Amino acid sequence: MWVEIGSGKDLQLDAFIARQPILDRQQSLFGYELLFRSGSDNFFQSVDGDRATASLIDDTVHLHSVEKLTNGHRCFINFTRNSLLDGLYALLPPALTVVEVLESVEMDENLLEACRRVRQQGYLLALDDYILEERFEPLLSLIDVLKVDYPALSKEQHKKIVSSARHYGFRLLAEKVETPVQFEDAMSLGYDYFQGYFFCKPQLQRAKRIPKSQTQCLRLLQKVNEPNFDIESIEELLRSDLTLSYKLLRYLNSPLFQRSKPLSSIRQAIVTLGQQPLRQWVCLVAVAELSNEKPSELINTCLTRARFCEIVGGRVLGRTLSPDCFVTGMFSLLDAILDQPMQELTSQLNLADTVRFALHGQDSPLLSLLTLAKAIDNAEWSTITDLSATFRLDVEDVLKMHREAIEWVATSLR
User: Fold this and answer.
1) Helices (H) and strands (E) in the chain, counts
2) Which residues of the chain have pLDDT under 70?
3) 3 state SS of 57
4) Count of CB atoms within 10 A of residue 227's CB?
5) CATH class for domain 212-412?
6) Sign of the CA dihedral 396, 398, 400, 406?
7) Residue 380 and residue 4: Cα distance in Å, rounded?
8) Which helix (H) or strand (E) holds 367?
9) Reported pTM
10) pLDDT of 211
11) Rounded alpha-carbon distances, angstroms, from residue 213 to 156, 287, 290
12) How far is CA 129 from the centre of its chain?
């Protein structure tokens, strides 16, 4: 990809974008932070901040579109001093863009005036990695969101920040919130938004008996994963659950299949769909049902991992293992969905050994694939590079496949 930087010279630069979810107090998705890395040697330090911002915006505008990357939610993007003064944010839609001022910027009247223009043009303005420095005081009256490295500060420091938020009227975003306990603590202190994968962690101390409706879903998952495909048993389980029966018939009678005659029976639907497609559909719908009391981003992450693992697995491991790749990605957060230990849950399902071992973190041809999917979620660039090389894939190809998975999920959840 070619982008033009302030010097007027063209720079060949592969822009790799990852995204991290930002949730509100109800654990509903508020937006994503889009994260940039250079693909040439995988070190952010090798590309200065101005080039990183310019490349990220160019890639977002011309290759992906903000709407596809965030499925219509807000995107948080870091802006350097120069990119703010140059107004590069104007290439992005105001309704979907949060302009993040980096904590490293030099504070002066020129910067403050640039921030005022950001607000005047309808963008939200955020200050990144705030650590109670006096030099930021003039900016606090202009921002909409203050981002705080949550684990780095003491409770007393957090109280001061909350007091400032009440005084100036901005919202607080806690970054690097990685556990449910951190989320609850930040909530109690008064934070509004939360960035980190706390919602992907099981709360085992609160583990409870699985409700009957969820047990039914687990039984169905168990049946479709058995080596012997017992149509009668699967039909009986589907017929006993009105919601699943309705969803299956609606799915198979949708315009996607262009049927001249609608299907009217569960048996007909099972036979028509076939074992592997039915298995994939059941995994998708059952996990969605199991996670109905969890943040919507949790099922989004499951689906993205499932589709990504299926795409990459089909390419590097062969089509035979492709369905198992999908199931591995889909079930990778089952412990967080049901607040139960993974080994206890997988013992209830007749999963292939390759899937079960991967979910347990044990030796399996699917383990590296799942590790790669998790690394992309967390923007662990060195791991992404190493595992891509292991699979003999270019990092750019891997991230393109991940973007394809994101777009597939956006379509599936409509």
Assistant:
1) 20, 10
2) 1-16, 37-65, 204-213, 227, 412-414
3) helix
4) 6
5) mainly alpha
6) negative
7) 27
8) helix 367-377
9) 0.79
10) 60
11) 44, 12, 8
12) 21
Q: Which sign does the torsion angle of CA 332, 333, 338, 339 carry?
A: positive
Distances (CA, A) of 4 to 12, 58, 63, 281, 390: 9, 9, 15, 45, 33
Q: Which of 52, 23, 48 is nearest to 37 (CA)?
A: 52
Q: In which residue ranges of the chain is CATH 3.20.20.450 found?
A: 2-199
Distances (CA, A) of 286 to 245, 302, 334: 12, 12, 11
Nearest alpha carbon to residue 81 among 101, 57, 51: 101
- Alpha helix stretches (DSSP H) within 81-121: 81-85, 109-120
Q: Where in the chain is the domain with CATH 1.10.3210.10?
A: 212-412
Evaluate whether 51 touches 82 at the Cβ level (below 8 Å).
Answer: no
* CA triple 249-254-257, angle to 5 deg: 105
- Sequence length of the chain is 414
Whole-angstrom distance, CA of residue 160 vs CA of residue 162: 5
CATH number of this structure's domain 2-199: 3.20.20.450
